[in-house]
# Entry
Amino acid sequence: MKSTDSAKIRIIVIFVVFIPVFLAVNFGAQKLRDAHRADFAHYWQSGRMILEGKNIYDSNEWLAEKSRYGTAPQSESTFQYPLPFAILMAPLSLLDVTSAFIIWMLIGEVSILTSIFVLLSFYPQRSMLFELLAIAAAFLFRPTFIVLRNGQIIAEMLLFISLSAYLFSRDKWFYGGLTASLTILKPSLGAPLLLLTGLWLLSKKRWHAIAGLAVGALLLLGLGVLYNPHWVADYLSTGKNNFDKYYGMQTTLWGGMGLFFDKANRWGIAAGAAGVGIILGVTTYFVMKKNTGDDSLKTLALLVSTTLLIAPYSWNYDQLLLFIPIVYILSTLSILYGDGKTALVSLVIIGLPILMALIAHTLGHDVWSVLITVIIWASMLLLPSHILNPKS
# Structure
């Protein structure tokens, strides 16, 4: 039997085994946590309001629905995501909150598991031990637990970016761009990531990929316009104060600036802007001058870690996206040094976020978790390109 056939059989077996486990865990979790209090509940509420023809950006209507359904008491006074996201959530909102959350958790878990094997396709010579190592690292990663527990959309974003990297590597540039465009459903991360990705594609004159990005964005825009022609203006008005509101609390460069500046004053903004400029300059140098070329996995992995550093609005659970550069790092180390030493590195990757959680509990904030992103970003700069090849 060919090694590729053996790998496919292992993947099928893993999915067959894991999906019932996911469902059992999800049903059990609902006995310990009220789904109405999860972040997912405001996704569900947005979909239900769409079904009822209501305005998710009207504060009075939003708060009335929160009171009616008892959903996501910690959420903002309006929906904080683009209208197409709420429309896509509408079918799931036909169910009650608890049933919908169980299904949403399963979608997230399968998205993460699928992302793992999409990313591992760049390393076809991998061993079964390495596959199990990657799965363990993913599901023991602290951000993964937070995402699944609260039901954020980050698991799906992980899948969108992973698929984009794979499609780009297979010269399916249009479909890779189309898939990448879906990350705009979470604009706080999707917008800067798509901007950086677009500039990379532009520098490589990958016009089909740029067309895919444009078509995907227009389709999402049109989907929202069918429901509310003015939704873009309504949406932009909802998040304009979030930067000031959460300045100094987030796991980004801007959160780090908040440790040194009491509020988002001109000195803090200037220092943050200078830091963003340096990070973007270094990233651009390594993408262009060090010539990652069409190495789509390394490029997107580097751009993801860059995005998580410079984003004006991001939390610790968003670091689940770091699993894209983490897989690149682990795969490269496995090729260069073997699975044994790679396993030790994976323990550090699992342990560091836990250490940061303990520090956060002591300090009362989780800003220092940005160091995880810094370490991953720096590691991506140091590792060689063109080692992984999904076509081999």
User: Anything to note?
Assistant: The chain has 19 helices and no strands. The radius of gyration is 21 Å. Residues 3-32 form the longest helix (30 residues).
